[in-house]
């Protein structure tokens, strides 16, 4: 989980209004002869669109420091002033996500090396070695100057460190730092050998210098090495982040600091990074054919990273991107609906990448609020401006609300790396999809969900669901057992409890440290080829638990050691053997799902758990309508109609829609893709 | 388009007969103990097959210069004599397409470097850096000796420089030459920064030395860099070509010079190279499942490259190749039909790769006139000999005819690079396929088509079609507008007028410099995922314009600014918006197609244009029969039956078939795969 | 095939019982605090499972030699003693398949270089250059110490050199050794140029130093170079093997020596290696969806490699692997059935990888007899123990039996490389699948088959089938002709007789040196695209030869030169031309199959040949039941039911089942997946 402890927080963010705006890169236009006019037009249009915050400087290093010994802040001073005059705040980037050309030329070892040993060439962004000392020194010098120059500016709201972290490297400096990291983790080389089981294939290290990063043309036989290197890369990026943060907290202790998460970066362990963010922020780019629960899943993760504190939707596109495999336009109303969905899941902002469409470069066809056409008479600008006007209706009290979830989905980065390790018995693991398989069933029932790490306290939850929890430490296993014994409900699935934190197999019977909690022993597992199905038969049927479901991907052969079978397999030589088990342990209960049921099967499972635990949706809504509840000094219900038809929702009491100010006595009609934010009327 | 100007031409080629023959590599047999007999047998069989030209020396560098200081021309002298005695001409290769092993060993930097920085190893062909000075020096020394030795030989007809150009390289010498090339193009580094929009992602160059070739592990974020590097590679290959040409023109000013084009090489801009060819030549290798219009498309491009001058079919296979994904035999009659199709589109030769099948190497299974069996009693030899006999029937006057096209299809290499740039909003662009989509509809109606560059004069055409013209300079836009104003008809499609010649987006509204000509503004575009369809409804229906068609791939959202909608979309939120527009501008008219219609839709478009403009086929023929017309001192109609059934063609006047010498009064029957060359009988 | 001659054999292996056991890696547990107990438990469980042989030391180099100057044999001494006390024998690995980390660090050139020139990094196994002198020296030093220390140990049964050979390398040392190898093969450089046909593309070598290994970024145009480099790699690995073998034969002349084959390694020519094995051994890992004939094919190859001598099944999995694309469990009974299938095809052992499941590393999820659970109360352990008990019932006389095959399938590694060379006219060749296409039809009829090299004597066979024999030397062609003339029956197919041993095309007419034997001339070939079919019509129909069959992939155009057409093509321009021919030559007959018939077509061919030649199955059995016969002092029929239903087999005489000791008078019922080993009862 990284060896950094959260530092001192900058002051919390207070929201007098939802942030609205986007990435603004005025330096892109300084090559234009009428760039001053473009800037003035930008500010005019921002006001027209209701913008109150822009992200500046994200990629401005070359514009701010054209040579190692020369700084040119003047243009940024001007922009700050122009924005401040219009009461537009600034989220100031530290500009370190893309080093200038002169830097790569002067310090070629700044460029990362791939796992085959090939040094990258200058260009693009995030193209640096995360352990390189020259990069650290030069980026920190810039950050100090930025902090000193703008720290007290009236427009400054927030620091935005680098951008969408994720560099990887396998150079000699990284190898050296990796060895240091391992020494901290394991102490002696003998311990590393013991934990990584290097006795296989004569891999035993007899000198620290022999330990190197993994490589497809070198060591790729040790899952433990792979996973530790992934931990290391996350930590080295975090160390780079914290190097900038330390300066910002020193110079501007009053300004909050964060970096933006995006795309569920595989190399960045968000749970390890979250304590070092003053506020969580997220770049949201769902694919055009993603179902709405997939965005919700990410939103809930963001909200959960800091225990339900409001977070920021920092980027989304107003129309389309150019980098997905397929890039159709967002249909009218979709951008608005997606924006409110973020708010419904705890965001306090709606921001876009980017303000004005770039004239060149890789993202020149990425949608923007102001398109290449350049004026405001476009569908997209009008939709953005309409949303900007609406957001002003949100009362500050609404922005201080939180969501309460009694259900947690357990997720962990090292576990992700372990599940999708190429040396498992199945090539068809998709950890995130498996999490979403369970998440979707909860979302469809409008049950609020937190997404938590196995190292977090569980006691505030009625139900914890941990699909594919293959990597479980002794301590994590004990915490889960304690949680169940004290009355919690825990559900896990096949391929769980297989390895410890060093990816050593648990001996003595799967699922290792979860075995006692679940009351089972998994003797064998049968990874099914794609298309091969088995069947689940529910036993002890009730109104809430019945039927037959198909299942796929994997079947465990489970012995009951106290647990009872809730469902059995219908086919193959293990027909009649337990497929879903239930166990009462202490004051709580635990469930084991020995396969991947189809969607209907997972829905029946959640139905049964909802019934047993009395889990409730905030309001009763028809299918396709999403409802969430944010609570604080006031209680707000967010209603989102994801369907192309009007939907009617019955209300338990009269409510007022914040967006229309209308009061609804008994029911409310939501138009296609429509939204309402309801507050009890009296 | 490259900075080379066409040099002095060698004398034009006069055709007393169509060239017939192929690549002949006698040096491949010198390792054989009875090689003299093989050569004598070759010459005997050539006479039997009607051969009058062979390409010699294409890959003979090692045989001509076995060491840097040793030349061995004697064997080539002998071959020249043997051929001359049989009145067989020689197209003499400069032998520089594959350097000898000793050269790569002595000058390792001759070997090219890939974009990751990996130096190639010796071997294969075209395996050299196009800017390498040692390669240039040594190849030019050889060329001078060849020119001096054979320039006055009575068998010499033509110089064939190198072969199928296309080397690419990313070495330090290329980087240096690229910077020089850019300095010529942009002058100051500030201008390059401005044109490439390097302000994105801090890519600004502050020293020329920072500018490097693109790389998948370096700079790949700047479309402008990618496109300029492609221009540069085409130019550097052209510079190498011109280095050889200069010597040939100096020593043998009376002998025409060319190199052969093939496979629509992406890295070689044919329009830039064509002025430097004394005659255009083409290697034709259609896939077995290509429709006949695809070969015709390439033939028409070759003919157009030098304004309709006769060109040479320099290579085709008599039976099959070994390097396509699938390599079935050409069925009996297919080779003959394909040969006449080339003549029908302006070729004055039919030549093959190769004469005698190789005994080893990569192409040992490539078909040849004389197979491994070695004698003439084969189907393939007999078909070749029959065709050789037929070609002798072609009168010289027929070879001095030209084709007249009133329709032009616009094509450009830089535009190709821009359309298929990986950073556009669609991964599914296929520029050549889009050109062929329109070409096919014209071909099916037997309307003659030139294929021209946007930099060529348009005034001789009634109709110019420019699909996917995404890259348009100010000057090109103005020329198109002038053409329309003066009465021309212009049609273009979606994703046109997006960027200037430096791949900067056109601001102020798409389609940029074409907007006034088309009378529209494209506000947005919607790239559709594969399989997603929309519908075109024709408005203002007439006999020549009616119906409903499906369309796919892309839909623009078009505002009419003077233009009228000819068809509208049927689905989605832009249902009812213009899908095809028409605009009268000056004396002419322009059309915009905001999507990709299906084949029937494109056919209806061409039908309407044909009707409005009175475009006519040379003769009326049934579907599946192709007809072209070559005109000069005589008028010849080429009839080609692509179907496996006999077809009857009505004749407007009595005509004589050149191949059978028969006169047909009213009609002619074409047998399956049959051919006729008709000349008015009286 | 390779220039090594078989050395002096170690004494043959005498089998008092079938070997039973598996790979045992006790050093993997020495990091555990209770490792002594684990070892004791291992030995207890081995006895319980009926184990009598374990493979030790396969990957123990690091454990035996933790530094270049330090050896630690003590733990191995202990294991030897513990095993010997329980009468468990040892197959001792030379431990050289994976060098220790210290070795790669001290001698970095031990690491192999890929064909692009990239040096591998330390890690995994088989990660060494097969020509490296340091690797050879150090591995041989270890081998000598092992031989001296354990050569006389009472537990030692067999030496197991390295493991699953197959390293490849393209480094400068390999290039140098390759040149030496070529000098031995070709003598003068001129001869190499002549054989490789380097005159193509100016590839002529003028100095030995110019000759380099093939490379995808260098020379890949010469099939002859590719094939010779594959021969060279097989030979260099063999040289490394023989380096170890020489020491073992010197120090322990009484102990047999072998290495294990696996997976039909493309780079290791088993026919060249077999003479240097004292016994053949095989690691059997059929895919879960492989039909049972595929395992049988490999078993028959193993048996044939040393003329029918018993061989060893050295590895299989008791349950599943983790490295196939799909890794379902072996269903109950499958492991037993597969084990007996090996015995049925001449194996005298059943062994597993591995004894105890690894706790880490790449194969930690590979099945094992003792799973991570660690005790014997598992399905897998019980099945293994049951089989161990059964195998004790096999009489020693049964282990001295051999199989007699009157049919041979011809296979050759260089031919494999030639057929699947990327420069042939078809991308769809799969040599092994084509062999199996014919093998399957023989197997289904329970006709015993040897799999032999074209260099082996043919005179003991009634029928020799040589599919896709594209590479045929003059000598091989003569031997086949001699075989036919003296009464043999020979069948070959399309794409045969194309090239000589240097991959030079045969001139004068395909199929080159087989043409006279077959009485045909193949003028042309037509490689069909996938999905394109033709039809075979049988001519001269009889009860044993009739019908119409589809065929695909390839059609030859065949002229009869004495042969008669047995079937003709039904479609295309060669409809009516011969598709299958028959020729009587001397006392024998030959058949040519000019296409790939479907399975029914091949079955009809084999049916006709079986009928003509009187080939017989050992017993008549229903489809899905396999029967083989091992003969010696006694005659044993192995019956294997591959179906999930009980099958009844009629017996020609009363027989006794070795496994149940029951006598069956007239018939025997085989349960699903059931096995019987029948010996005539009286």
Automatic annotation (TrEMBL), chains A, B, C:
Gene3D superfamilies: 3.40.50.880, Glycosidases, Golgi alpha-mannosidase II
Keyword Hydrolase attached: yes
Catalytic activity as recorded in UniProt: Hydrolysis of terminal non-reducing beta-D-galactose residues in beta-D-galactosides
Keywords assigned: Glycosidase, Hydrolase
UniProt keyword Lyase present: no
Domain Glycoside hydrolase family 42 N-terminal: 23-392
SUPFAM superfamilies the record matches: (Trans)glycosidases, Class I glutamine amidotransferase-like
CDD domains linked: A4_beta-galactosidase_middle_domain
Domain (Beta-galactosidase C-terminal): residue spans on this chain: 624-678
Top EC class of this enzyme: hydrolase
Domain Beta-galactosidase trimerisation: start-end pairs: 405-615
EC numbers for this chain: 3.2.1.23
Entry-linked Pfam families: Glyco_hydro_42, Glyco_hydro_42C, Glyco_hydro_42M
InterPro entries linked: Beta_galactosidase_C, Beta_galactosidase_Trimer, Class_I_gatase-like, GH, Glyco_hydro_42, Glyco_hydro_42_N, Glyco_hydro_b
Protein family (similarity comment): Belongs to the glycosyl hydrolase 42 family.
Name of the protein this chain belongs to: Beta-galactosidase
């Amino acid at each position: 989980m990284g060896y950094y402890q959260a530092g001192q927080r900058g002051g919390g963010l207070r929201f007098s209004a939802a942030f609205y705006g986007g990435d603004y890169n005025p330096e892109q236009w300084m090559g234009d002869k009428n760039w001053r006019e473009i800037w003035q037009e930008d500010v005019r249009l921002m006001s027209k669109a209701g913008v109150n915050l822009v992200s500046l400087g994200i990629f401005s290093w070359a514009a701010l420091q054209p040579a190692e010994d020369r700084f040119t802040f003047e243009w940024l001073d001007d922009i700050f002033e122009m924005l401040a005059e219009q009461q537009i705040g600034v989220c100031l980037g530290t500009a370190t996500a893309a080093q200038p050309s002169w830097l790569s030329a002067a310090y070629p070892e700044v460029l990362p090396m791939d796992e085959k040993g090939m040094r990258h060439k200058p260009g693009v962004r995030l193209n640096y070695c995360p352990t390189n000392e020259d990069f650290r020194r030069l980026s920190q010098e810039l950050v100090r100057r930025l902090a000193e120059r703008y720290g007290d500016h009236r427009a400054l709201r927030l620091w935005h460190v680098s951008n969408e972290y994720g560099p990887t490297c396998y150079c000699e400096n990284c190898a050296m730092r990796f060895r240091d990291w391992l020494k901290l983790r394991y102490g002696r080389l003998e311990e590393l050998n013991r934990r990584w089981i290097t006795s296989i294939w004569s891999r035993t290290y007899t000198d620290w210098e022999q330990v190197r990063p993994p490589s497809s043309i070198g060591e790729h036989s040790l899952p433990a090495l792979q996973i530790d290197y992934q931990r290391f890369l996350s930590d080295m990026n975090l160390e780079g982040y914290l190097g900038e943060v330390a300066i910002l907290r020193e110079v501007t202790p009053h300004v909050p600091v964060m970096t933006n998460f995006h795309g569920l970066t595989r190399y960045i362990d968000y749970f390890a990074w979250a304590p070092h963010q003053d506020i969580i922020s997220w770049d949201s780019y769902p694919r055009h054919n993603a179902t709405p629960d997939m965005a919700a899943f990410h939103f809930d993760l963001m909200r959960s990273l800091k225990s339900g504190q409001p977070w920021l939707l920092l980027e989304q596109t107003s129309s389309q991107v150019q980098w997905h495999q397929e890039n159709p336009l967002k249909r009218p109303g979709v951008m608005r609906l997606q924006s409110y969905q973020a708010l419904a899941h705890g965001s306090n902002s709606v921001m876009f990448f980017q303000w004005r469409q770039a004239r060149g470069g890789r993202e020149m066809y990425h949608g923007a609020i102001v398109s290449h056409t350049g004026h405001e008479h476009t569908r997209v600008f009008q939709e953005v401006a309409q949303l900007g006007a609406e957001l002003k209706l949100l009362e500050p009290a609404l922005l201080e609300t939180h969501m309460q979830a009694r259900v947690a989905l357990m997720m962990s980065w090292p576990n992700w790396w372990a599940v999708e390790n190429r040396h498992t018995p199945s090539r068809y693991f998709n950890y995130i999809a498996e999490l979403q398989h369970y998440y979707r069933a909860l979302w469809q029932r409008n049950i609020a969900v937190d997404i938590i790490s196995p190292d977090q306290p569980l006691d505030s939850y009625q139900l914890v669901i941990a699909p594919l929890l293959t990597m479980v430490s002794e301590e994590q296993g004990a915490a889960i057992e304690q949680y169940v014994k004290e009355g919690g409900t825990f559900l896990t699935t096949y391929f769980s409890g297989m390895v410890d934190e060093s990816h050593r197999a648990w001996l003595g019977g799967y699922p290792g440290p979860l075995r006692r909690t679940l009351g089972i022993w998994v003797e064998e597992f049968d990874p099914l080829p794609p298309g091969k199905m088995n069947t689940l038969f529910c036993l002890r049927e009730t109104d809430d638990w019945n039927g037959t479901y198909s299942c796929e991907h994997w079947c465990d052969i489970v012995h009951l050691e106290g647990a009872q079978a809730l469902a059995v397999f219908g086919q193959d030589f293990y027909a009649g053997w337990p497929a879903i088990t239930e166990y009462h342990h202490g004051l709580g209960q635990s469930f084991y799902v020995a396969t991947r049921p189809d969607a209907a099967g997972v829905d029946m499972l959640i139905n049964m758990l909802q019934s047993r635990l009395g889990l409730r949706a905030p309001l009763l809504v028809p299918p396709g309508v999403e409802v969430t509840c944010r609570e604080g000094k006031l209680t707000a219900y967010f209603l989102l109609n994801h369907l192309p038809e009007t939907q009617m929702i019955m209300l338990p009491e009269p409510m007022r829609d914040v967006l229309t100010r209308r009061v609804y006595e008994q029911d409310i009609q939501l138009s296609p893709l429509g939204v309402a934010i309801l507050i009890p009327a009296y």
